[in-house]
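Appendix B, example 12.
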Amino acid sequence: MSDIVAEGRKITRDYIIPGGMFGKPRTVQALKGIDFSVERGKTLALVGESGCGKSTLARIITMIDPQTSGELKLGGHVVDIARHRPTAEMRRRVQIVFQNPYGSLNPRQKVGDVLTEPLQLNTDLSASDRRDKAHDMLKKVGLGPEHYERYPHMFSGGQRQRIAIARALILNPSLLVLDEPVSALDLSVQAQILNLLADLQDELQLTYIFVSHDLSVVRYICDEIMVMYFGEVVERGTRDEVFTDPKHDYTKTLFAATPRADVDHIRARLAAKQARLAAGG
């Protein structure tokens, strides 16, 4: 029997739009009965253009927003934050990394405080143990103890995203939701972060839900793909199934409109750019 970390059945999310002074309020369905599941140690990609509902689903999975209807299970436990407040243990199991590494970190907090604060709030570790764990996590994401006392503005975008990943992992979650984690980064840095996420998944047996508008990026890291369009899943399958033989016209349109941005193509594009610069072009 497979070990399912997260699953949803018929998940919906409605928003009430005010009608103004004379109009009537109307209901907009952001999600229209979504089914999904992801196994331990695997990566499920939610793919689609802006407005398709993928980030809305991610916010429900991370218990930021409630579903309007349907059943969400995390680690086999039913979760409905509109009816029951999730426990601290449940919140520790699911963490999120946001798109913008510049806006997701408190500029007034040193990196050490960013990493140790969740430990102080959620564990009984001593101050020295919290510091040691933070140092260890910095090492895992490719940084070092010398970065512990620095502020976020002293880092590049890629380094800040590494810090955000370290913060998300500091409580040993079973599920990490990655909401467009590389789209705000330069091409060379995208490749580094994708490689880091793959290495961390192998080392820590992490489970990912990877949100992206870019099919080529998720090809490098995902095991399964769900393609979303206006709140519905129009195609799902393994990475090889979707990339080898896409069935839905919308999926084919995404392929046609998306530049190749997987790690190998990022490297090839950088090499071509460097060659042009060397030639004076």
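The longest strand covers residues 4-17. The first helix runs from residue 54 to 61.
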